[in-house]
NBD/HSP70 family sugar kinase
Amino acid sequence: MAGNVHRATAAGQGNDQTRRHNLSTVLTALHHDGPQTRAELTRRTGLNRSTIAALVAELSLRGLAFETPATEAGTVGRPSPLVHPNSDVVALTVNPDIDAITVGLVGLGGRVHKRIRYETELPTVKKTVKIVTALVEGMQSELDSRFTVLGLGVAVPGLVRSDAMVTLAPHLEWREEPLAGPLTEALGYPVTAGNDAGAACLAESIYGAGRGVRELIYLNGSASGIGGGVLVRGIPLRGSSGYAGELGHTVVNAQGSRCHCGRIGCLETEVSRARLLEVLGRGSSEADHLDRLLAESDDDAVQIEVNRQLDWLALALGNLIGIFNPEAIVLGGFLGSLYAANPERLDEGVQEQTFASLVHGLRIERAELGPQLLTVGAAELVFAGLLADPAGYLARLDLPGEGVRPAL
């Protein structure tokens, strides 16, 4: 990003560090919880009114926030202005899967401006880059005229290193495939990549059914199988190499089918979107309508398959509850549809598979963000750097354009 982004002058290093921390606190509050008055920001941050006014002014000057007049019934004097995150500051997103590539555009505050699902068969990295480039170029005039693009976030159904190297995405048949270089070369934006279920877990914990939950298990079901994410004391569990959360490879059936990972009877071999669509007599293009298809079906074979999958899912959840002792379990993707088809069976199955003390007060819910979940999750991969240090992040960006545009 060009160097005309406005920067505030700090009195000293200590003051500068404090200011940056406070900018992060205020912008994160706006991004996660939406528009708030200056008075509300003062109450929730514990900062004084003049400090909040200065921070909001700087965020506005940088184009990350803007204010509108607020009316507060019953207040005396001039009402506190309402501060908004600037949703025209955006992240481009990509979610490659075995049957489609989805490209999105998400603004600060989690606002999804655009989501395009391009159906294709088992895309290679080269094909993915080609399709994404074509889709982004199709919206380039709108991007240039209206939005400030911070970068591109990619949510991959597989193991992804911090440098955006896909170590293994078995269903896509990707192994040791770099993503950042080819995508940046094609589009000119910095790239951040991560596991799709981990990104979805983060999004659902911010905007969805996991909001406010500190001990959370998230399971995502997609065309590529089942992935997971875990929050421990509100912090994503990453593991020593960043690969934690491969919950789809929890073994549930020693007499089951061989998984692509080499083991027998992994959860994702027994609980499968493809099996549900097959018994329904439908193709993958209709997967977004799985709720309706399951609800409308009166075929006994469909109910038998739904119950079979719910029983294996209950067994897996019982194991995971014993390990993590969560407050809540959130089910996304086709797992949400599976749960909605017969929630009582899963709830009862989980009760049978674990100690009563571990499930006391436990909530099992489906994800709330629906088809937009992975799009919002991929955007959070990009926004994380901005939220941690708004001033420093903008200063480090090296993108084409004139920098962050002030909101109108």
Notes: The first strand starts at residue 36 and ends at 37. The two ends are 20 Å apart (CA to CA). Residues 1-13, 399-403 have pLDDT under 50 and may be disordered.
